[in-house]
Amino acid sequence: MSSFDTLAGVTQRVSDNVEKVIEGKPDVVRTAMTVLLAEGHLLIEDVPGVGKTMLAKALARSIDCSVKRIQFTPDLLPSDVTGVSIYNRETREFEFRPGGVFANIVVGDEINRASPKTQSALLECMEERQVTVDTTTYELQAPFMVIATQNPIEMEGTYPLPEAQRDRFMARVSMGYPVMRSELAMLDSHSAANPLDDLEPVTDGAEIAKLVDIVRSVHVSDAVKRYAVDITAATRHSPDLRLGASPRASLHIIRAARAHAALEARDYVIPDDLQLLAAPVLAHRLITGLDAQMGGRGAEAVVASLLRALPVPEPAATGRGG
Fold first, then answer.
1. Which of 55, 49, 53 shows the shortest CA–CA distance to 14?
2. How far is CA 122 from the centre of its chain?
3. What's the average model confidence in pLDDT over 236-258?
4. Claim to verify: residue 163 and residue 230 sit in the same structural domain
5. Is the peptide bond before 315 cis (omega within 30 degrees of 0)?
6. Which of the residue ranges 39-53, 62-76, 191-205 would you say has the lowest mean pLDDT?
7. Which backbone phi and psi does 224 adopt, to 5 degrees?
8. pLDDT reading at 317 higher than 70
9. Same domain for 10 and 72?
10. Could you read off the pLDDT of 26-51 as tens digits, one per residue?
11. What is the pLDDT, as a whole number, of residue 247?
12. For residue 316, what pLDDT is reported?
């Protein structure tokens, strides 16, 4: 069995497990798996009651590794997230007590309800996989993933995520309302008991780490790299956008494309991978201009129009020989 067959088998088990809880959202589950394998972080943004926290918990429970949930509230302190040094009278030394980020998967529920100071406690750990407290740096164990949820509709008592924070999330997904068939199935499976209670792990952190190594080996040709930079550069020059995508976005879209190619059992990235991932990877980082807002065009629509205008690399230049 090849390494890509192994990856396909494990990811299919995890996806099937998550879909026992999340009815009728295979595309959202697949994007979550892509971000996990690409060593990224996921922002789940949608209206209340559509299963944002349920998706985060189901993915976390499907992997036998350390999981911690942080409920973001206005009175949450940065030390609750990162940890704090406490003086021990018996030993007469300071002891470090780890915070909520010391886990393989961290579920940050309603992240925009905490103050900007507390939100910023996640910046270092999301980017550098480490936490610094009182001049001491603590490494975070791999794999490490933050899955955060937020409600974009309710603004009272919330603090919008700053651009630096949003830029650290590899992708954003929206759950959307379920179709009628899925909602009816949910009434059967969720009304009597919580399906999360019966969810068992189907893999572990060590196996996920091996899959991440497989994803890193996926080939990206120079032509595809240029195409990725062309996409992000187009957002910086678009008259419809006040803020374009950062160089970090270029890195994230390539990482995500590698994971997507691996999920498709390919050992090389093609332009289609970038096109499929452009909206979830880029849209949450962009700020639309007044004209686009007045015309009712969101960031996703702007990204789609930019993709249509960009030339696509020739197939011969995107494979192993490119």
1. 55
2. 14
3. 95
4. no
5. no
6. 191-205
7. -70, -40
8. no
9. yes
10. 899 999 999 999 999 999 988 877 78
11. 95
12. 62
pLDDT averaged over the chain?
A: 89
Give whole-number Cα distances, 58 to 6, 75, 191, 226, in Å.
Answer: 22, 27, 17, 36
Residue indicated by tokens 């807002």: 293
**Range list of β-strands (E), the chain:** 42-45, 63-64, 67-71, 83-88, 93-98, 105-109, 130-133, 136-139, 145-150, 171-173, 203-204, 241-243, 287-288
What do you get for the CA distance between the two ends of the chain, in Å?
27
CA atoms of 12 and 232, how far apart (whole Å) = 31
Cβ-Cβ contacts under 8 Å for 228 (sequence gap 6 or more)? 250, 253, 254, 257, 274
- Tokens representing 278? 């452009």
Whether residues 166 and 187 share a domain: the answer is: yes
Which stretch of 101-110, 153-162, 277-286 has the lowest confidence by average pLDDT? Answer: 153-162
Last residue of a domain, one of 176, 211, 246: 211
Q: Which two tokens stand for residue 220?
A: 């990206």
Q: Structure pTM?
A: 0.91
Contacts of 128 (CB under 8 A, 6+ apart): none
Task: Find the CATH number of the domain harbouring 244.
Answer: 1.10.8.80
Range of the domain at 288: 219-317
As a whole number, mean pLDDT of residues 185-205 equals 80
- Say if residue 138 is in the same domain as residue 176: yes
Give dist(CA 251, CA 97) in Å, integer.
Answer: 33
Same domain, 158 and 278: no
Q: Per the structure block, which two tokens stand in for 110?
A: 């309603």
Among candidate residues 152, 169, 233, the one with its CA nearest the CA of residue 38:
169
Token readout for 54 is 């349920």
Residue 134 lies in a domain: yes
Note the pLDDT tens digit of each residue in 127-176: 999 999 888 899 998 889 999 999 877 667 788 888 999 999 999 999 88
Report phi then psi at 170, rounded to 5: -65, -40
Tally of domains in the chain = 2
